[in-house]
Amino acid sequence: MKRPAGPPAGPQAAKPAATPPETPQPRGPSARGSKRPAAGSTAGGNTGRASGRTAAPSRGEPDAVTEPITLPTARPTASAPAAAPAAGAGDRASAKPTTGRPAPAQEPAPAPDAPLTARAARSRLRAARRARKQYERSEVRRFTSRSRHRRNLWIAAAGTVLALVAFVLVGVFSPLMALRTIEITGTNRIPAADVAQALDGQLGTPLPLLDLTEVKAQLSEFSLIRSYVTESRPPDTLVVRIVEREPVGAITSTAGFDLVDAAGVVIQSGPDRPQGYPVIDAAGGASGAGFQAAIAVVRALPEGIRGQLDTVTAATKDDVTLTLGGGARVVWGNAERSEYKAIVLAALLVSHPVGSVTEYDVSSPDSAVVR
Fold first, then answer.
1. Topology of the domain comprising 175-244
2. Can you tell me the distance from the alpha carbon of 97 to that of 76, in angstroms, rounded to the nearest whole number?
């Protein structure tokens, strides 16, 4: 509805009414961007022009007063968007042009955390302290790995040395290693009990502290022992391996006959001649050169010929003569090449048995003679 711009012109016109306070117009992007006049102002202008056509005011009359008309603001729609009323100067920067697209849905704001209680704070503090300590320990281990490796090596070496020292001390001074058993092996003519009884003085002594010099002196009393070997078997056993003397022949003596070994040591004495052993007759006795030559010849003979041997005579070391059981003589000469001479004699005994000949001469084995 259009209202007149002012009262009718005339001398009796009333005084102009008071102008009401202006309503702030909306200042949005559309209002700022549009240069068209407001609807109220346009209507007022048209009304003024119409009034001017009907009656032009005289110069003596006052100017017409235009009353602003406030139009209701339409809500923006998808087909005809409109500017939203500005709330104030602070909303100008935030105002954006409205488009026909729907506004995107906003994500819900995260719920605020529950208030931290004293108990939860202490728990978090303890967890942080544990994590800090664990981290510090890992860093210490990382930076000290080499030094710890060297320290472990030194500790292992020192432990090994200490263990060896302790083992030696225990073995030397501990009664756990004391001698309690004496084992004798290799005896035939010598009673083993006699040898063990001779070594009874070593009982109770730790094995590393056995007096081997005293053991040798005690075993030397047995003339039939040619050699021996001792072996300690922890924790408390001593093994003595004995090698007895082997008799090779008999020599005549004031007592009758002495059974001797290769060194001339008397093994057995008696009035009767020992069976299975030849009688050795050597110039100078058991300590002469003839005796050693005769012993060398006897030891070179095969077992079959040695059993047929009756006597061995050695006037000198180069004149050794054998006498077989059937009475045949064997001229041997010296002890050189005795193994070869024994082979030749064995062949002659096969081709010329005892009884068919009286003498075998092998002093020159390459040209043996049978008589």
1. Ubiquitin-like (UB roll) (3.10.20)
2. 11
